[in-house]
Specification:
About 25% of the residues lie in helices and about 35% in strands. By secondary structure, the chain is α+β, with helices and mostly antiparallel strands. The longest helix is centred in the last third of the chain and has 18 residues.
């Protein structure tokens, strides 16, 4: 945590009017029956006067590469050599009301979802330190989980990783009560000099964003989880021709591809039983 402290001292007292970048490590276990199945991803919370954006470092880099390719050759969505990362979702909060918009890809479509759930925190007297920062404990029940957060008023930004916000200072660490989803801050810096703030909906996307509410998103999520080939089968039923090839260009038996895909998805669901927003499965 020493680099974290030095960076803070270098940039002085924070203000919500400044462009800041907070780097978090996200540790997660997707299979509740296998504690050794843990993974991690480096995530970034970018804070600007307009709002904040939370996404994986790999997703941020892939977006930059895609934007450059589209600028050079519009309409040519070349994914070759791009590392999208394990976490492909993006969470955006707009200030000053902290309205939350969640971006996620389901099947062949990308969705824009408004999440208006209230954050009802219980602030507790316990205090600790993270690095050189004094932090205070708070708890919340959200997404079908019980969470414990540690926030600091020394960074007076009422934001945090993922959708979490609403405490009297930045959330430096938050974890569920089973310690299977943990966000912990690792460094602080300013935006790179060349970076400009942009809202996710204003960027170029492979497919036009589809706006849905939280209830519709949950239904889409579950349908895709249980029947990932549904979209392609609907296209085929409509009379449109669908062709799939392997890396050599050989045309594949699409029915076999879809059957294999559905079978593999069901096996994957058994392992992917501990998603962050657990209430999506209920």
């Amino acid at each position: 945590m020493k680099n974290f402290v030095l960076l803070f001292l270098l940039f002085g007292v924070f203000s919500s009017a400044q462009n800041q970048r907070f780097l978090y490590e996200y540790r997660f276990i997707l299979d509740s029956t296998d504690r050794d199945s843990g993974k991690k991803e480096m995530m970034v919370l970018d804070v600007s006067p307009e709002g904040s954006k939370f996404l994986s470092i790999d997703r941020m880099k892939s977006d930059s590469v895609m934007a450059a390719r589209l600028k050079t050759n519009p309409g040519n969505f070349d994914f070759k050599g791009i590392k999208f990362g394990q976490i492909t979702t993006v969470v955006e909060k707009r200030y000053p009301d902290f309205s939350i918009t969640f971006f996620d890809q389901i099947g062949m479509n990308e969705y824009q979802v408004n999440d208006d759930r209230k954050m009802t925190w219980k602030i507790l007297p316990e205090k600790e330190t993270i690095g050189e920062f004094s932090v205070q404990k708070a708890t919340i029940k959200l997404f079908g989980r019980n969470w414990t957060a540690w926030f600091t008023t020394e960074i007076p930004i009422q934001d945090g990783p993922y959708k979490f916000h609403g405490l009297p200072g930045l959330i430096l660490k938050i974890a569920d009560d089973k310690n299977t989803h943990v966000f912990e801050i690792k460094s602080v810096s300013k935006f790179p000099g060349e970076m400009k703030w942009s809202f996710e909906a204003d960027k170029a996307h492979v497919q036009p964003l589809i706006k849905v509410n939280a209830a519709a998103y949950k239904k889409l999520f579950m349908v895709n989880r249980e029947n990932p080939s549904q979209e392609i089968r609907q296209i085929m039923t409509s009379g449109r021709k669908v062709t799939m090839t392997d890396e050599t260009g050989k045309v594949l038996d699409i029915e076999k591809v879809l059957r294999d895909r559905d079978r593999n998805q069901k096996a994957e669901n058994q392992k992917n039983n501990n998603i962050l927003e657990l209430d999506l499965l209920k």
